[in-house]
Amino acid sequence: MNVLILLGIVSLFIFGRKVSSNWITGIKDTLNKMMDFSTDRRLFSSWTANPIGWTRNTQCWARAYNWSGTAAGIMGLGGVGGGSLISRRHVLLADHVPYPARPFEIFFVNRPGKTFTYKVTKIDSVPGTDIAIGTLDQDADPSLVTYRVLPNDWARYVQGLTIGTAMGIEVVTLRLPVLYLNQEKMVSTGDIVRLVSGAAQVEPPAFAPAQAYYQVQRGGDSGNPIFVQVGDELVLLGAWHQIGVFPWILTHKGAIEAIIGQKLLVADLSGFTRVA
Q1: Residue 225 lies in a domain
Q2: Domain containing residue 202: CATH number
Q3: Which domain covers residue 201, as residue numbers?
């Protein structure tokens, strides 16, 4: 069977409905269908050095989502580090990563497999966080996705979420299934379990079928993105800072928008049932 036809059939099977009545239940249903397809976690099956380019892995278990806005590589980092498009001209990075002298090259691969090379001309830090914003030398190609963030009222759609305090600090407890990348561009599963002072904490997934797709973070994974699924869309939550922890991008939304000079794109949760 033609590969494109097969992918179309699988995509229809996975994303038959854009949303379900319950957001978290819909995520788990989609994960189950995706995991039935494959256990291969690699976004790319191979790469070439001259000319530099990556081949998308058609057997990746999460290949039905759009990963084209995640950097395939950064020149001068030896394979570590990562970045994600938050506008046509800006990339979310981790501030503590020792990026090369500016300008340096960053690479993206669209869904058909074409590699695009851009230069990061400057990096702005969000004060008091590990968030950095890289500016590209030109607008990213329209075939590369710019990721959205959650709306401000996202918590109203999460069953069982609680808000408390510990030593005067607000602590949000929840179970939110997420997908994330590591330095080898492999797709893993996990659960956000706490939000404390603008930092999200990730643990192995409680959802049993997803546990086989979990991999603990390591040094070198910093800057690679963490997403939550909203229907057929990956929505950006942040980028790795340290093992199991990353800055919650919504906490610093205003500061990020001031740097990029525009509003971040916001995902639509209105089709889901509010539970709070």
Answers
A1: yes
A2: 2.40.10
A3: 154-260
Q: What is the pLDDT of residue 20?
A: 43
Q: How many separate domains does the chain show? A: 1
Cβ atoms of 110 and 141 within 8 Å: the answer is yes
User: Does a structural domain hold residue 117?
Assistant: no
Per the domain annotation, does 224 fall within a domain? yes
What averages of pLDDT result for each successive group of 10 residues across the chain (276 residues)? 44 44 94 95 94 96 97 89 96 96 97 97 97 98 98 96 92 98 97 97 96 93 97 97 96 98 97 91
pLDDT at 276: 75
175 is a domain residue: yes
